[in-house]
Amino acid sequence: MSEKDTLFQHQSGDPGSFRFDERVVDVFPDMIDRSVPGYSLIVPMIGQLSRRFAQPGTVVHDLGASLGAVTLVMRRALADRDVRIVATDTSPAMVARFRELLADADANGDPGAPVDVVEGDIRNTDFTNSSLAVLNFTLQFVPVEERGELLARAAAGLCDGGALVLSEKIRFEDEGEQERQTDWHHDYKRLHGYSELEIARKRAALERVLLPETRDEHERRLLDAGFSRVTRWFQCFGFCSFLAEK
Ligand code: GEK
Questions:
Q1: Whose CA is nearest to atom 29 of ligand 1?
Q2: Is it the case that residue 102 has pLDDT exceeding 90?
Q3: Range(s) for CATH 3.40.50.150 in the chain?
């Protein structure tokens, strides 16, 4: 069971200080659910989409898997598909906890596709013979200037008919819209029990760590990377998910 996220009740939000360490791991499912509007819908929907794109004999990537929420739904959705899921995360604390959760799922006899959990940087991922790659709120933590190359390598490694799911926090070109959407997001966090202080501290801690770009920047980059069609299939306030088809 995930603990309740009270991290920023006790921890000061030094600008740029946010890290995916043990303290975040302990509260992560609660933190992401109460912070990202739509997360609890996006995850199962990726499971649904995976059935359309994952092809037998290929690899499916979960990039920046954290505790494996997406991997666990895809594992179930693709149990009969002869695919291998490779779930990669750079945080040792996330990877260790995810391996425990996966062992629990195995011990409970949950059926599913085989999963390799890799502790590593997604900028080094080998995309050969893949049919689906998922970046569920991960690219936003990769330096902006390195995003194009990563997506181009993913596109090149995907087989015909393959796809990439990209979920991101976005920013808005128009200042007024940015302000309104931010207010509505903060209303969501208040409604889910975060105080003004917690919201302000977390926001400061994520400065220069989470780097949002506009919808246009994402769509253009995906097309430049070699995808032929990009569909924004989900948006709630500044939280978007795109499906890029090869
Ligand atoms: C979910 N997808 O629950 N290489 C590998 N992992 C990275 C990198 C990198 N370069 N940069 C950041 N990460 C998950 C949620 S969380 C989103 C993803 C959030 C990892 C980082 O360690 C963290 O676990 C994850 O990306 C981002 O569907 O916390 O907003």
A1: 32
A2: yes
A3: 39-171+212-245
The response to whether residue 64 sits with its C-beta less than 6 Å from ligand 1 reads yes
225 Cα: distance to centroid of ligand 1 (angstroms): 21
Ligand 1 center–CA 64 separation, angstroms? 4
CA distances from 236 to 60, 63, 151, 212 (A): 26, 22, 24, 15
CATH tag, 39-171+212-245: 3.40.50.150
pLDDT tens digits along 52-84: 999 999 999 999 999 999 999 999 999 999 999
Q: What is the band of 1 on the pLDDT scale with cuts at 50, 70, 90?
A: low
Look at residue 195 in the predicted model and tell me its pLDDT: 92
**Cα distance between residue 181 and residue 203, in whole Å:** 15
pLDDT > 70: percent of the chain: 100
